Amino acid sequence: MSKAADDGGVPGGRGEPAQQLGGEAAGGKLASKLSASSFTPGWTKVSCPCCASERVEPLVLVKLGQKAVPETKRWLIKLIGAPQKDGGAGLLAHPGEDATGNIIVLSAPRCTLLRATEELGLCKIYHTGEMEAFAYNDRDNFRNSDNMEVFLTSAERQYIIKYELDGLRAQKDLRIPGLPDSCTLQKRDNIWQKLGQVGVVVDTFPLHNPDKLKDLSESWYSGNQLSQPLDKVNEYFGSSVAFYFSFLDFYTWSLLPPAILGLFIAYFSSRFGDEIYFTDYKNIWYPLISGHMFQAVFSMLWSTVVIELWKRRSSTLSYQWGTLNLAERFAEPRPGFHGDLGVNPVTGRVEPLFPEWKRDLRMALVSVPVVGLFLGLVVLGMMCFYWAEARVKWLHKDWDSMISQTFLYVPSVLHIVYTNMLATVYRTVATSLTEYENHREESAYDNHLTGKILVFTFFNNFAVLFHIAFFKQDVPLLRKRLASLLIITQLVNQVTEVVIPFLVDRFISAPNRSEREDDPKEDKFRNQGTLPTFPGLFAEYIELLVQFGYLSLFSCVFPLTAVLLLLNNLTEIRSDAYKICKLFRKPFYPPVASMGVWKVAFEVLSFVSVVSNCWLLLLSPRLQKTSQEAGMSGSHLLVGAVMVEHVLILVKVIMAALIPDEPDWIRKKREHIEYTSMQALRQQVSQGKISKAVCGKTKYTLGLHNK
Amino acid sequence: MSKAADDGGVPGGRGEPAQQLGGEAAGGKLASKLSASSFTPGWTKVSCPCCASERVEPLVLVKLGQKAVPETKRWLIKLIGAPQKDGGAGLLAHPGEDATGNIIVLSAPRCTLLRATEELGLCKIYHTGEMEAFAYNDRDNFRNSDNMEVFLTSAERQYIIKYELDGLRAQKDLRIPGLPDSCTLQKRDNIWQKLGQVGVVVDTFPLHNPDKLKDLSESWYSGNQLSQPLDKVNEYFGSSVAFYFSFLDFYTWSLLPPAILGLFIAYFSSRFGDEIYFTDYKNIWYPLISGHMFQAVFSMLWSTVVIELWKRRSSTLSYQWGTLNLAERFAEPRPGFHGDLGVNPVTGRVEPLFPEWKRDLRMALVSVPVVGLFLGLVVLGMMCFYWAEARVKWLHKDWDSMISQTFLYVPSVLHIVYTNMLATVYRTVATSLTEYENHREESAYDNHLTGKILVFTFFNNFAVLFHIAFFKQDVPLLRKRLASLLIITQLVNQVTEVVIPFLVDRFISAPNRSEREDDPKEDKFRNQGTLPTFPGLFAEYIELLVQFGYLSLFSCVFPLTAVLLLLNNLTEIRSDAYKICKLFRKPFYPPVASMGVWKVAFEVLSFVSVVSNCWLLLLSPRLQKTSQEAGMSGSHLLVGAVMVEHVLILVKVIMAALIPDEPDWIRKKREHIEYTSMQALRQQVSQGKISKAVCGKTKYTLGLHNK
């Protein structure tokens, strides 16, 4: 252990020396030996108490702020390298060129990776070839468990580093070395969060692996391939991203049937008029079976089948990617979670607790009313817009001057400005609300935040269309609006999402970066920091959801919807892939077992679509005329439509209940895992080992105190 | 081991002698020592290889048929007493007065009971006071595990005996001693099923415990108590019966709010006419809020709240009764299950397997169409009835003679006969269909059978009412019909269910039984066999479901429904309790975790009620008149009703989603169990014990062959 490290303020040297790279390299003398060119194939020979590894892969870059003096940096490296039982993160840290630089490059030793794999509840391939929940004690029976770069995906290795950093908590009150006295950590404070708040750490992001990235992009979007390399995407970006692309892929291909039907109907409509008459004689039922009706019923059933099949596909993917059995509930709470310290009744560990009923109360009494208020503001804005538009038109008719003509655009402009401002405010409010709800798990937090923004965005997008369909009851206007929305929004999306970032990257950022082959590794890492942060999958998912909404809610008024969407999505797959690979930093994503709240959103939409389609069919002028000719009153028609709607909803519910959400073989695997753990419990309780097991890791018992 | 037992044909004596009571008592000489008076407090001192017990409680009576010669009986007693690893049932058997009598009295030793407790997945109180899944290896840490009469409920002990008997399978081909050569058992044949088929065993039923029964009935229905002793019911009759009575209790008390509301509305209706006018001035909305409307909306929301609260209550009861964690999926398949022998991928045991898709196919292609056909026959019958009635009336108007007047009753009589015949045929068909579907678990079989009969019975009960409400649209007729149904069916039910059995029991059966205090125990046991078999809970549940249907589907036409039902149920609780205690044999019921398919039926009904109530409100003549006065067209009214319906369904769905199905503390307990077993798995895999554990008990490896 070098002297400098000891001076850094970490007490260290308690029992076994921290033989991590961080510990060794923290000193100025040693650091000079590790020139940047030694980043790969290996930093130095690393050995930790439980495993030895010949090669260190740089995984994550930490960028320090102005406030981080060398003393702070040395303390930080020491902390990161210290074993978990001493309150450290058990990772490998490299200080970059020297101890005064503003980056730290992180990697993880095998034992930390394996322990975290167990903690996260990831499944890996057992020696029998089956997926089994990974157990550290049984590590030698898992395939490839000696080679971390094969055993864990690159996304998992990087996420584990983030997981360990986020899990760092102060063992007791301490001052951060090199910072003013006001920057102290209370016992059990989250260290990484605090460091970010005081400006010591300004950025933590995973590093790209240029070779792998090149390989991935070649098989993903460079050629003319039709299928996506989803397993590779999962390997490189993690299951969250891979689930998005899998769904995009699945959804795009499932657009084929409605697209073909739409083309067929559009062709016949243009030749024979709006309705397909099967016979000439005046039988009342035949003309009722118009092309649009057929399409409406088809799309209502289609949406259920697609969603049910996706659930099956999703659980298969989740099994393949080892995320079927995630144990987030049993892991440490997320960094932002707070509450009174107590014993968790499930895991038996001491951690902050927050009663469920309090959260429910906060949701019911605060979140729901606030979200409702914002939805009300959207409606209010829309009503003001219609009112103002009517006033302005009336004014223009009276005046008919240049000024009044300009006024004609004022309501639209004001409405757009209002809507955008509202959306921005809402986003902030939604984040605070979700923070206030104080969810224990990261995934619950994400789902609640996503859910809130989702409802609002959806409402914002569809309020006008619903208004036209249900209040104005103006089908031609709806058709015009839908067509323009479909074409314009898609063009705008493609431009804002890909073309602009591409141009910015090529002509503004890239010249400043000017990367050369012989640049030191470290500079290349640093360069990745200049790329913008990946904006997240929310925008991508909401785009799909809005598409799906256009298609399922209003498809019957514009039969070519599916065709347009299919064409759009085929390019979307490529542009999204290009975007995530080239235009942004690599994002951190936790392993997930499904699309989460998005699945629910698509499901809800598919039920709403029945109501909307039945209503639109009822408005169809041709149907109204035909039924009048046949002597049916409006009420009879309405009763008929309501009956059709109820039957269709019933059929959808039954279909959704009958199609199992997971394939049979996955169910058996899952039950097998349940059975084995039940058996293990029965076998073991007698040996009195459970009490120990329940207490789990004693991460925080030994203090890492500050001199 | 007595000689007679050896002659009995069981090979026995392989290694350790079967020291069960059965083994000892099978011989004629020994049996004579065990006079009937020695049944209690103990048969003989019993000791089995793993436990010793001073006292044997007679639990189950097996009645043998004419075919069972003494040789067969000795073989059977030997088989029942043989240890499980030798293919026996591991039970205690007492031959009654002597080896030639036609009864066998069964009990179970501690180790068999405890092993079965683990196999069934029952939870028991751990030494910490918490409920934990019972593990045989850890038995000493469970409270009262040395005293079976406290540790297990009497229903559980008796069910375990049935479970072990049902699990008896031939180890290899063998001939049943004393029977003709044609009666042979193939390897893996279910022995108990076969013995029933060939007429050796004609009856197997659990024995009443007169003291406990007296105690139970005193606290249940003899006094004026308002609450039922549900825990005692669970102790004596098992959780299936206890769940029924808990639900009856819960449902009866939850009738209070609608009953009070109904009384209130009936009172005001009689004083102020059908509608409550809040003001005098002609505002259109006030008169719309009529009492009936309020009641309809109230009852729609009430039904959801009741069902959601019942789910919570149900999971609490399930936790208290230790059935939260039943392991039926992992146990042996039910006796009737057949399929090709193979390795169960979940448990790793060799057993018959039957692919899921084949079952699904059978359900989709056979069961569903056949059930649909029968429902069609119900409708057909109803249509024929209406047609015939119209014809007969028309005929009577023309003729107006005595003969034609008699004819007036013919359609009704024919319809009743037709309906009853159809129901009988359907019951047989439903049983065969469910048998054909080949379910692996007893509970799945029960649920599918119950579901089928349920749909039919419900359809049979409500088809006429729906026809009146939706096609004839005749609210007064509906009201008349509903009132008469409510009163008549309840009277009929009470009479057929209680009064007739009571009279039969008191005046026909009892004099024949003429039990005296000094009768030998054995005769008292035998006497229980003369009581009729308990007809099952289906009729009880369907009665509640039909009640609930009247209340939630059509309540708004007859406000006093809830009052009538409340009065009925308060007597129903007592009469049902009396019935199950006194008029029938004690039934076998497996431990269950909930009401099963009945919960779903109540839930579905609660959603259908929204549709039906909204429609009935629309038909309300007062509403139609008011809206006409206000200048609303029929279509507008219809659109309004549809909107109200959709909003109510949405509210119900959201309410059902928001109210958690289990209380928070139960969820935590459940997650704690999951967590402990996950930890156990992780701790243990390393020790290579799972492979052994997975193979489970090797019940069938050693043969019990016939000489």
TrEMBL record, chains A, B:
Keywords, ordered alphabetically: Membrane, Transmembrane, Transmembrane helix
Region (Disordered): 1-26
One cellular component (GO) term of this entry: plasma membrane
TM region positions: 250-272, 284-307, 363-387, 407-429, 449-470, 544-567, 588-618, 638-659
Anoctamin transmembrane domain span: 233-671
Superkingdom: Eukaryota
InterPro entries membership: Anoctamin (IPR007632), Anoctamin_TM (IPR049452)
Residue stretches in coiled coil: none
Membrane-topology descriptor: Multi-pass membrane protein
One function term, GO molecular function aspect: chloride channel activity
Compartments (UniProt record): Membrane
Family listed: Belongs to the anoctamin family.
PANTHER family: ANOCTAMIN
Name of this protein: Anoctamin
